[in-house]
């Protein structure tokens, strides 16, 4: 009896939450609808809600405007390589900080923390200089290499390793396993939730990152989608249906990953409380 | 599908503890298992450590150095002392962009009460469908800012945008939102709020879920109503999470770039013809322009150094002020 009563009292909450959800989702919905309208229909006043005729040609125009397939591959390769490298390098360093005692550990950790506190723009000029000196402008290396290292990831995983039960590691150690074996065989599998959280976040940030690609890769064939979309906007400023189609294609993979793994995603965000 | 953010994952809720607890923590840490092979320690840290040193730590030092130099046309730097900083203090464009950034930050902070209201609603006992709501509110957070900007430009479009059409239905004349100097800041801030509400909501919800239910039961036995409970239980116990969310929002908003850059259309040929350009330009946009397009790298470096100091100072002030309103249980 009381339960049904309570469910009844929750209607105002549902109304407010639904209203907010509609406002939140509307821009994305409008993006989808516009991407199927012809140019003349899109600028019609008053606007139509549903496309009068579902026009797929905007999607092929995206491919005419930018080397979309190439940029899509660039983005995938960049995001995957950065993520894989961070997972490996950060977990190694994090384990050493959490479980190995050696002189200078505290000082080195402070260095990592210092990087964590500095806003990203302070790295850009010298990073660009390094890329230029190495002849890496307009290359995949430029997109990937600086993003392989992360103070944030190391910190996140260190916290994770510190929270793991130590008995298993101790036992393996007594059996004569080296610290690396203990790390690789025992601690790393136990840290899977932390690795997953870091992996998802890194993948997302890499996929969406705009400023660094804009700086280093000006050749459209070497750009990721974020920068490609910016140049598509430059070229097709008024052809909104084409821009909507391009935006949708660029966002869709991340949205699919998010919906499939939202539990880990949201836990990762809540756990780290941090974003790019 | 339920999406419980487990309470122990709510970092901010468990910061400082009573002394007895932390003593025990310390003793526990003493016992904590440690390898003693120092070479393994160095070997495992070396790859990440060297990468961070080369690409992050040393660049900070270099950027600081650049800020005292002028960049020659053929590379090479000349030491010019505080000259860049003097230019900056007298540069109206810098102050203007700082003002714009400040206004943007202030407006985005207004989204936090909104996030809090949503989190409180989602935390209501017995509410169904929280998973779906959470997913929907979180979508803008994962959407690529470059794509978001394009979509909102379209909504804001002065001639064929849906926003102006909706306003016309209730008899209001629309404006050119992103090229009108009076509206650009609000237009951009609305998008900023839209993109961060779901994110802050998740953090606050994690904080709410870590408040023990007994408190509310005890309070209602004592005859405290819903409103009273909110102000004497929820708000104080949530204040560490609110503080944390505010600090992060300020840090991130002060560095806003891609959203504003693309909404204003700074990437297009006729960007500077947008009459709203200077009213929308943020500090990081100014840095980007000076450092990478106008070839004034020393000046660009000075801009981001000042921004860094401002962020640190504002964060420090917030930490000082937290005593006044943040309650650690």
Provide a descriptive summary of the structure in words.
The complex is a heterodimer of chains A (276) and B (329). With 276 residues, chain A is mainly alpha-helical. Chain A folds into 2 domains: 2-59, no CATH class; 69-239 and 253-272, MetI-like (MetI-like fold). In chain A, 75% of the residues lie in helices and 0% in strands. Chain A has 16 helices and no strands. Chain A has helices at 2-9, 11-35, 39-42, 57-65, 68-99, 105-117, 121-134, 140-144, 151-162, 167-174, 179-190, 192-208, 211-216, 225-235, 240-260, 262-272. In chain A, helix 2 (11-35) crosses helix 15 (240-260), helix 5 (68-99) packs antiparallel against helix 12 (192-208) and helix 6 packs across helix 9. The radius of gyration of chain A is 24 Å and the shape is globular. Chain A starts with a helix and ends with a helix. The relative contact order of chain A is 0.14. The model of chain A has no long low-confidence stretch (mean pLDDT 90). By secondary structure, chain B is mainly alpha-helical. Chain B contains 15 helices and 2 strands. Chain B has helices at 19-31, 38-66, 83-89, 92-109, 111-122, 130-142, 145-156, 162-169, 184-209, 213-221, 226-254, 258-264, 277-280, 283-292, 297-325; strands at residues 69-71, 77-79. Chain B has a two-stranded antiparallel ribbon with strand order 1-2. The longest helix of chain B has 29 residues, at 38-66. Classes of the chains: A mainly alpha (276), B mainly alpha (329).
């Amino acid at each position: 009896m009381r339960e049904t009563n309570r469910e009844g009292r929750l209607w105002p909450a549902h109304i407010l939450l639904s209203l907010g959800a509609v406002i939140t989702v509307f821009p994305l919905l409008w993006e989808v609808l516009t991407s199927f309208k012809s140019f003349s229909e899109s600028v019609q006043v008053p606007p139509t809600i549903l496309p009068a005729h579902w026009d797929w040609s905007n999607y092929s125009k995206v491919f005419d405007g930018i080397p979309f397939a190439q940029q899509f591959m660039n983005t995938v390769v960049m995001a995957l390589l950065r993520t894989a490298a961070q997972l490996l390098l950060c977990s190694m360093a994090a384990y050493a900080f959490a479980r190995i005692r050696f002189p200078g550990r505290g000082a080195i950790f402070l260095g990592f923390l210092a990087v964590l506190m500095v806003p990203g723009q302070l790295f850009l000029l010298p990073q660009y200089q390094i890329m230029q000196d190495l002849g890496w402008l307009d290359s995949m290396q430029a997109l990937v290499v600086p993003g392989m290292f992360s103070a944030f990831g190391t910190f996140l995983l260190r916290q994770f390793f510190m929270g793991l039960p130590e008995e298993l590691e101790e036992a393996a150690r007594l059996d004569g396993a080296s610290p690396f074996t203990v790390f690789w065989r025992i601690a790393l599998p136990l840290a899977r939730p932390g690795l997953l959280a870091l992996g998802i976040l890194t993948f997302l940030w890499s996929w969406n990152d705009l400023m660094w690609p804009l700086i280093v890769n000006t050749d459209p064939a070497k750009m990721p989608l974020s920068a490609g979309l910016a140049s598509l906007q430059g070229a097709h400023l008024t052809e909104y249906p084409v821009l909507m189609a391009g935006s949708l294609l660029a966002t869709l993979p991340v949205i699919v990953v998010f919906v499939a793994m939202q539990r880990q995603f949201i836990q990762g965000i809540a756990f780290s409380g941090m974003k790019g | 599908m339920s999406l419980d953010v487990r309470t122990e994952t709510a970092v901010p809720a468990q910061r400082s503890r009573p002394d007895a607890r932390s003593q025990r923590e310390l003793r526990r840490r003493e016992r904590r298992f440690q390898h003693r092979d120092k070479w393994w320690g160095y070997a495992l840290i070396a790859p990440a450590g060297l990468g961070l040193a080369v690409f992050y730590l040393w660049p900070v030092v270099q950027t600081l150095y650049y800020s005292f130099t002028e960049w020659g046309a053929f590379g090479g730097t000349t030491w010019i002392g505080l000259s860049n900083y003097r230019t900056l203090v007298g540069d109206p464009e810098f102050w203007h962009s700082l003002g714009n950034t400040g206004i943007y930050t202030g407006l985005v902070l207004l989204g936090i009460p909104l996030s809090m209201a949503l989190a409180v609603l989602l935390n209501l006992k017995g509410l169904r469908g929280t998973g779906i709501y959470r997913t929907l509110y979180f979508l803008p957070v994962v959407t690529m800012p470059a794509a978001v900007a394009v979509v909102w430009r379209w909504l804001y479009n002065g001639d064929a945008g849906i926003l102006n059409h909706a306003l016309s239905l209730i008899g209001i004349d629309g404006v050119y939102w992103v090229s009108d100097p009076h509206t650009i800041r609000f237009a951009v801030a609305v998008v900023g709020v839209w993109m961060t509400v779901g994110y802050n909501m998740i953090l606050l919800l994690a904080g709410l879920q870590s408040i023990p239910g007994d408190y509310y039961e005890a309070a209602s036995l004592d005859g405290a109503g819903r409103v009273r409970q909110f102000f004497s239980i929820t708000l104080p116990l949530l204040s560490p999470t609110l503080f944390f969310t505010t600090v992060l929002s300020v840090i991130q908003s002060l560095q806003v770039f891609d959203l504003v850059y693309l909404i204003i259309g700074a990437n297009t040929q006729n960007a500077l013809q947008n009459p709203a350009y200077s009213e929308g330009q943020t500090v990081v946009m100014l840095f980007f322009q000076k450092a990478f397009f106008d070839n004034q790298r020393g000046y660009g470096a000075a801009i981001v150094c000042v921004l860094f100091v401002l962020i640190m100072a504002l964060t420090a002030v917030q930490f000082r002020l937290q005593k006044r309103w943040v309650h650690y249980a």
